[in-house]
Amino acid sequence: MDMQNTVLIVDDDREIRSLLADYLETHGYSTLMAQDGHAMWSALEKNPIDLLVLDLNLPGEDGLTLCRNLRAKSNLPVIMLTARGEPLDRILGLEMGADDYLPKPFEPRELLARIRSVLRRTQNNGGREHDESPKKLRFGEWTLDLVARHLISPDERVIALSGSEYRLLNIFLEQPNTVLNRDQLLNMTQGRDADPFDRSIDIQISRLRQKLGEDARSPQIIKTVRNGGYVLSVNVTAETH
């Protein structure tokens, strides 16, 4: 329920921080505010936080750096705020591990909807931690560790994944040998419909292929289906230990 969730708002604009905090609190959320990275780390250390709203353009360490450093130690959901709304900003935010992004200016109710969507998606994923649920998914010679949220290569190397890469690969593994188009993938990973010019899914798949050691011209694991989308073309086996 919303009353059980605490949102940390990190933005150097005091007016935006206060506006968002007031709006979210009227909808049942508890909020904390921070004006920069130093205050963010302090708040995270002292308080249980359920979701982070993080501005890209901050004094000192910017939002991309903070998100990347956070991802090295935590899976805390992050929604990135980008002032320009440029495709590169959005893609970089997702690659650094953000769960969603929202370009400024925006309506507070749209941020509220994104927060609810991200929390619903990430909190539902918590069910994988039960003993009877899969802990690992094996595909080809690769393994996705669902607890540690990283890849294990055929030679047992651990390969880090961003939050968006992990979700995207997990979706393919849950639906092997099924063609998924860009609209479906964007909706399932970010809870939104695709913009006609949004190519973030293509870029994330390209990065996934690189981490899987795939030849971009003839990939064997995640294949491109002409005028259709993408398909995971290997069998998947679940492990519960």
Report how far the terminal alpha carbons are from each other. 31 Å
Number of strands: 12
Number of helices: 8
Gyration radius over CA = 18 Å
Oligomer class: single chain
Quick check: average pLDDT? 84
Please state how the strands of the largest beta sheet are arranged side by side: 2-1-3-4-5
Which terms would index this structure?
single chain; 241 residues; alpha/beta; five-stranded parallel β-sheet; five-stranded antiparallel β-sheet; 12 strands; globular
Write structural notes for this entry.
The chain has 241 residues and is of the alpha/beta class. Helices cover 38% and strands 20% of the residues. It has 8 helices and 12 strands. It has helices spanning 14-26, 37-46, 63-71, 87-95, 108-124, 163-174, 182-190, 200-211; strands at 6-10, 30-34, 51-55, 78-82, 100-103, 136-139, 142-145, 150-152, 158-159, 222-225, 229-232, 236-239. The protein has a 5-stranded parallel beta sheet, with helices on both faces. Strands 9-8-7-6-12 form a 5-stranded antiparallel beta sheet, with helices on one face. A two-stranded antiparallel sheet has the order 10-11. Helix 6 (163-174) packs across helix 8 (200-211). It is globular, with a radius of gyration of 18 Å. The two termini are 31 Å apart.
